[in-house]
Design brief:
- It is a single chain.
- The protein is of the alpha/beta class.
- The strands form 5 sheets. The chain has a 5-stranded parallel β-sheet with strand order 5-2-1-9-16, with helices on one face. A 4-stranded antiparallel β-sheet has the order 11-14-13-12, with helices on one face. A 3-stranded antiparallel β-sheet has the order 6-7-8, with helices on one face.
- α2 runs parallel beside α5 and α4 crosses α11.
- Helices cover 33% and strands 18% of the residues.
- It is globular, with a radius of gyration of 21 Å.
- The structure holds flavin-adenine dinucleotide (FAD).
- The site of flavin-adenine dinucleotide has 43 residues, from α2, α5, β6 and α11.
Length: 412
């Protein structure tokens, strides 16, 4: 049998194994297998039976796409400056106590990721290679080349695979919540062949990601269509700021349909500059995302163009071929060599700052229902997310959900 046919057969076999039906009863159901869902599962006690589901395959989550990196408090002096950067980018609308929780938890979460096998790039002297993105007043972002999300998500997934109390089920889509006597008691879901099941449980964590699939031009996976928010709202669960949607300034321009390819903000952090049709800079590229996106739209309108250009002329070839290897390769496939020429870029929908309202323990307004990651709104990002805060925020607040589930069980 030809290699390609063998690979196709074994991929199909793997999918059939993964798409086993989830059990109808468990202690915790987690909808979503991105970093938020996976880290919650890792932080739940092994004595609990945990069912995880995802809408498509495990690869199809935004966590796998994160390029730039993940913030960490480099030293205690960094607290105030990171706090101020986050509040400033969020236009003062961030919940201060959530920002505080995220920053103080960052060192511990990063140490835990490293313990779980995640590798971050280091400098020649062995220290971490911190990078910088827009609206950060200093470099405080850890990265794994420009595929940080894939590195973190695959390592977390490998850990989850080792847990005998956790079952992971692909191609199982949550359609509704089960609510009885004013509390969440499970979810309604359907599998790949349309079979509808009621999955009963004591606690549910919604970690269903963002809303990019609802937009024509987005950096998100098309399957991410705000399902968690929709089902929660249908049961009267409070949502916050569903109109706070972040538009990323730089996705690679193409007239082909499908997911927009992100050109990470850390490219601008490392020296890439935006140019108009005349080859001139027209804004400060390191302002917050909303400000840079507006400047690009204004430039496109005044020129009547469909894109502006991003030049890597000031970025060394070593950095392009090392730190930005994934972006460089992707652009080559699209016919652009970023070492030699500017590339066409255009803003695209990127992130939902709003979502299901949660309190300090990621609890929603419906008992036994938790939300974490991009689908939730704990107020960290205010009206505009600071770059590289979201992977961290997802991890910090999904762990808090897991801890609250344990605390509540002990208290009952
Ligand atoms: C291109 C790109 C680059 C990014 N770069 C960075 C970065 O450098 N740093 C940073 O901090 N952040 C970055 N982000 C943002 C960050 O990746 C996400 O906010 C974060 O990964 C969200 O994690 P999550 O677990 O909440 O959701 P996701 O990882 O998106 O996972 C959502 C999960 O929910 C499942 N799901 C959805 N609906 C249903 C349903 N109805 N039933 C069952 N399952 C369902 C999906 O199948 C999926 O498994 C980037 C985002 C993108 C798109």
């Amino acid at each position: 049998m030809a290699g390609a046919a063998m690979a196709e057969m074994s991929a199909r076999a793997m999918r059939e194994t993964a798409a086993t039906e989830p059990p109808l009863a468990s202690d915790v159901v987690i909808a979503g297998c991105g970093v938020a869902g996976l880290y919650a599962a890792i932080n739940l006690p092994r004595a609990l039976r945990v069912t995880m589901i995802c809408k498509e395959d495990l690869e199809s989550c935004d966590s796998m796409l994160a390029q730039g990196g993940i913030c960490v408090m480099r030293d205690y002096d960094d607290y105030d400056s990171w706090f101020d950067d986050t509040m400033r980018a969020g236009h003062g609308e961030c919940r201060a106590e959530s920002v505080d929780t995220m920053i103080w938890s960052s060192r511990d979460v990063i140490a835990d990721l490293v313990r779980l096998g995640v590798e971050f790039d280091r400098t020649s002297d062995g220290g971490y290679d911190y990078t910088r993105e827009g609206a950060h007043s200093r470099p405080r972002i850890l990265h794994h080349a420009d595929v940080t999300g894939k590195e973190i998500t695959t390592k977390l997934l490998a850990q989850v695979r080792k847990l005998s109390n956790v079952g992971v089920h692909e191609y199982v889509c949550m359609d509704d919540l089960l609510v009885e006597n004013g509390a969440c008691v499970g979810i309604v879901a359907h599998g790949e062949h349309g079979k509808r099941s009621e999955l009963r449980t004591r606690d549910v964590i919604l970690a269903t990601g963002g809303v990019g699939g609802l937009y024509e031009r987005s950096t998100n996976f098309p399957c991410l269509t705000g399902d968690g928010c929709r089902v929660a709202a249908a049961h009267g669960v409070t949502l916050d700021h569903m109109d706070y949607v972040q538009i990323h300034p730089t996705s690679l321009y193409t007239d082909k349909p499908g997911r927009a390819f992100l050109i990470s903000e850390s490219c601008r952090g490392e020296g890439a500059v935006l140019l108009n049709a005349a080859g001139e800079r027209f804004c400060d590229e390191l302002q917050s995302r909303d400000v840079v996106s507006k400047a690009i739209y204004a430039q496109m309108e005044s020129e009547g163009s469909r894109y502006v250009r991003l030049s890597f002329e000031r970025v060394s070839e070593d950095v392009i071929c090392g730190h930005f290897a994934n972006i460089w390769q992707h652009c080559l496939e699209e016919g652009y060599d970023i070492r030699r020429e500017p590339i066409p870029v255009v803003p695209a929908q990127h992130y939902l700052m709003g979502g299901i309202h949660v309190g300090a323990h990621s609890e929603t307004t419906l008992p036994h229902l938790y939300a974490a990651g991009e689908t939730s709104c704990n107020g960290v990002h205010g009206a505009n997310r600071l770059a590289s805060n979201s992977l961290l925020e997802s991890l910090v607040f999904s762990r808090l959900a897991a801890r609250d589930i344990v605390r509540e069980r002990h208290a009952a």
